[in-house]
């Protein structure tokens, strides 16, 4: 037997396994979201989710260690999004300008990560104390991630007070605008209507920070 061939992983088999894992994860997430919106996050059990997805309870928890992870399955993208926008800013662009541009782009695209999650999903979060608390924690984590990115962008020491303050101000605007999207959604506005309302409001909100941060962390 050829030892090398026997120990080499088959790329096709690996690809199929990974695809199957992604499909299973998405199926569990979709079934969980449907149950959460139909009967509420707090009242839905892991056993019910497992039954709906036709998998074992352990399979659910293997993919989603916490119940909250099933409802807020874009957590990593949310937490790291502002930091990634700073890292990807264009030559000569400041962190402030990059973040404002990224936010307005997300609003125009009705990005779910920016808050465009639809009325049923938004109501599910608003009515759940657990998910509301989890969302506040994600906002805090996003601020911490942005502070790290700003410190790196300005060659400052980790924990630099200027980077932390700038991150607090910039994420504060994002937090207010995120809440505004949720409120408008719950009030019955469509996504295009929300965009029409939010674009000028966001421009005014960011303008409050412009005198202090317009040139901060310029690439």
TrEMBL record:
Keywords from the UniProt entry: DNA-binding, Transcription, Transcription regulation
Compositional bias ranges of the Polar residues kind: 1-11
Domain HTH tetR-type: 22-82
UniProt DNA-binding region: 45-64
Residue segments, region Disordered: 1-24
Signal peptide (from-to): none
SUPFAM superfamilies, per database record: Homeodomain-like
The keyword tRNA processing appears for this protein: no
Record-linked PROSITE patterns: HTH_TETR_2 (PS50977)
PANTHER family named among the record's database cross-references: HTH-TYPE TRANSCRIPTIONAL REGULATOR BETI, HTH-TYPE TRANSCRIPTIONAL REGULATOR RUTR
Protein name, as recorded: TetR family transcriptional regulator
């Amino acid at each position: 037997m050829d030892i090398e061939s026997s120990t080499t992983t088959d790329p096709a088999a690996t690809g199929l396994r990974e695809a199957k894992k992604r499909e299973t994860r998405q199926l569990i997430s979709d079934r969980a979201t449907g149950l959460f919106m139909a009967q509420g996050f707090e009242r839905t059990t892991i056993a019910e989710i497992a039954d709906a997805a036709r998998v074992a309870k352990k399979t659910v928890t293997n993919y989603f260690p916490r119940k909250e992870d099933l409802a807020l399955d874009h957590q990593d993208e949310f937490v790291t999004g502002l930091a990634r926008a700073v890292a990807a800013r264009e030559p000569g662009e400041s962190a402030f300008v990059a973040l404002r541009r990224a936010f307005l782009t997300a609003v125009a695209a009705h990005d779910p990560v920016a808050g465009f999650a639809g009325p049923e999903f938004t109501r599910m979060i608003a009515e759940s104390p657990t998910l509301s608390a989890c969302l506040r924690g994600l906002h805090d984590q996003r601020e911490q991630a942005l502070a790290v990115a700003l410190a790196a962008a300005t060659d400052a020491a980790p924990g630099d007070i200027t980077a932390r303050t700038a991150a607090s101000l910039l994420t504060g605007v994002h937090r207010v605008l995120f809440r505004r999207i949720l409120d408008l959604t719950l009030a019955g506005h469509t996504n295009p209507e929300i965009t029409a309302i939010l674009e000028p409001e966001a421009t005014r909100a960011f303008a409050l920070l412009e005198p202090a941060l317009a040139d901060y962390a310029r690439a």
